[in-house]
Amino acid sequence: MRALMAVDAILSRTSHVLLLLSGIALVAMMLQVSADVVAKYLFHSPIKSTLDVVTYYYMVALTFLPLAAVERGGGHIAVELLTQVFSPRWRNRLALLSALVSCAFFGVLGVITLSTAIQKFHIGEYVMGTLHLQIWPSRFFVPIGFCLIAMVCLAKALRDAFGLFGVSQEDERNG
């Protein structure tokens, strides 16, 4: 149980760092888009590649980097229409099953998108807009987000399993 608590603390810090990075991306996007609008209308010269940077960097960071922090905070959509009628024990079992299925789902997505990101890195993927913009680095935001949320779901499943089987911290120390 102590190891799970240590892993949970690492996941918490890591998810908060990624949440902070997505917040920085949000502020940077607002500043760049605002500067682009001002430059376009006041100086008749918009900032080159603003649309590409927003599309390929900021939006990807905003979407995938905070996934784990949102999961840790219970912020994802949950439909509890059917589970309300179940006993607490069955709700706990369903929470465990949900965490395991989510872990597998996000883990598979993480592996697949990591493979794609590595391929794009090797070919040096770029987009040719008003500037030659390397976009392969932003491909790594996706597997980072998916892999971290998979680890958060696994930690949640382990916590649920320990709770479901009645293993407390006291039992762990004595046993």
Question: Structurally, how many domains make up the residues?
Answer: 1
Our measurement of the CA-to-CA distance between the termini, rounded to an integer number of angstroms, reads: 11 Å
Give the spatial strand order of the biggest sheet: 1-2
Number of helices: 6
Helical fraction equals over 70%
Low-confidence stretches: 167-175
The number of distinct β-strands equals: 2
Strand content: under 5%
Q: What does the average pLDDT come to?
A: 90
Q: What oligomeric state do the depicted chains represent?
A: single chain
CA-based gyration radius: 21 Å
Name the helix and strand elements from N-terminus to C-terminus, one letter apiece: HHHHEEHH
Shape: elongated
Biggest pleated sheet: 2 strands, antiparallel
Class by helix and strand content? mainly alpha
List keywords for this structure.
175 residues, two-stranded antiparallel ribbon, disordered C terminus
Give a written overview of the molecule:
The chain has 175 residues and is mainly alpha-helical. The chain has one domain (2-166). The chain is 74% helix and 3% strand. The protein has 6 helices and 2 strands; from the N terminus they run H-H-H-H-E-E-H-H. It has helices at residues 2-43, 50-64, 67-72, 88-123, 141-164, 169-174, and strands at residues 126-128, 132-134. The model is unreliable at 167-175 (pLDDT under 50).
